[in-house]
Amino acid sequence: MPFVPSQRLVLLAVVPLLLGAVSALEPSFVWPMLLADLALALVAAIDAWLGGRVRFRVEREPPRIFSVGRANLVRLHVYSTAQRPLAVQVNDDSADGLVIEGLPKTVQVPGTGHALVTYHVKPSRRGLYELGDHHLRWATPLGLWWRQIRIASRHPVRVYPDVQAVRTYEMLARQSLENRMVRTVRLRGGENEFEALRDYQRDDDYRAIDWKATARRQKLITREYQQERNQSVLCMLDCGRLMTAETQGLSQLDHALNAVLMLSHVATRAGDQVGLLAFDARVRAFLPPQSGRRAAQRVVAASYDIHAQIVESDFEAAYGYLSQRLRKRSLVVLFTEVIDEVSAKSVVRTVRSLGPRHLALVVLFRDETLDAMAEPRRTEPDIKVADLYQRAAAAEAILWRDRLVRDLQEAGALVLHVSPRKLTPTLINRYLHIKAQRLL
């Protein structure tokens, strides 16, 4: 409907309505009622005609890449042909899986000018989406109507893992401020190739102190060695049914992919090779480890349309596929979720198979809700029996998970049991620690 009556028009329409009510008692009021109707209809028609002459044009400026779970900024440039300034209400269509924040929004568009409207799009899933038509609404010159139009627009967008976090890290890295984002272990190598001297810091190994340089400068000086480069890191992503569980609006798989993206970026900056294997009942994607900036970009491109499926994951098949294609000793980071004995035994067997050739790092997601259920609350004057059963069940589940962590460690794997919101910085710290300790 292009025109909607405003509150002003409705109030003016009350006048002939009252005259009509009076004319039922006094026939002499019929002509004033008809004249009032005619005048109101004429004025409303002229106002609608004047309001319909205005033309608008909208240009959308979305980001080139959308990050899942992030508020992505979208700009709209609204151009008007009207000679007078207009207060225009702007709205956009969106697709399922995209949450628009900041619309509808009213903006003042100057005469024959343009105005900028900004809003944010927060995707809940990765993949290919489409931003839809524009909807504009403004008042006619006399304010009797609201004129509203739809401007056709189709803008396909691709939603990737959290690339905004990578950009933030890159900006901090350029300023040598990585430690503000994660508590990193400094990238020191083993004692094989001298690189530089620097001031001693509190957590340095005392064996690395250069006593001759210390005597010359009258302060503690530490030797720094080059770190080994060109090592291989491969991320194994479990895309089975358990990875569909959501935390903070994102699935476990999305949390894992965000961490994979950051790990790929950090590893390629360190000179290492990065690869990816995604699997559920079958292998969904495989990227052999490669080095350079393009390696991280390949991981982003390959993972944007990978989603968790309601199927059981086949760990043995994934390992068999990997063992045929990955000969070089590598750090294999397995992201998975395990809640039953069958899957647990399968993961342990896979880790034990990886052990002789590769270094396995298993990432398990900690359920903070379960931890909270198992914790006794201080103020419980009248605790219910059902609450005790619930707490006992939560404690049993936590003990089972702790036992799984021990089994994985006994099988030769490193284990990260961490909540999804802490996954990325914890994983980066562990990778840097592995590099610093020459475990690979």
Give a summary of the structure in a few sentences:
This protein has 440 residues and is an alpha+beta fold. Helix content is 36%, strand content 29%. The protein has helices at residues 7-12, 14-23, 30-52, 163-174, 211-217, 252-269, 293-303, 315-325, 341-354, 368-374, 385-410, 423-436; strands at 3-5, 56-61, 66-67, 72-80, 86-92, 98-101, 105-109, 114-123, 127-131, 134-139, 145-151, 155-160, 194-199, 221-225, 232-238, 246-247, 250-251, 273-279, 283-290, 330-336, 359-365, 414-418.
Characteristics:
single chain; 440 residues; Immunoglobulin-like; 4 domains; 6-stranded mixed β-sheet; 5-stranded antiparallel β-sheet; 12 helices; elongated
Describe this structure in words.
The protein is an alpha+beta fold. The protein has four domains: 3-52; 56-160, Immunoglobulins (Immunoglobulin-like), CATH 2.60.40.10; 193-226, no CATH class; 232-436, von Willebrand factor, type A domain (Rossmann fold). It is 36% helix and 29% strand. The strands form six sheets. Strands 19-18-15-20-21-22 form a six-stranded mixed sheet, sandwiched between helices. It has a five-stranded antiparallel sheet with strand order 1-11-10-5-7. A four-stranded antiparallel sheet has the order 2-4-8-6, with no helix packed on it. A hairpin with a 2-residue loop joins strand 16 (246-247) and strand 17. The protein starts with a strand and ends with a helix. Residues 176-192 have low confidence and may be disordered.
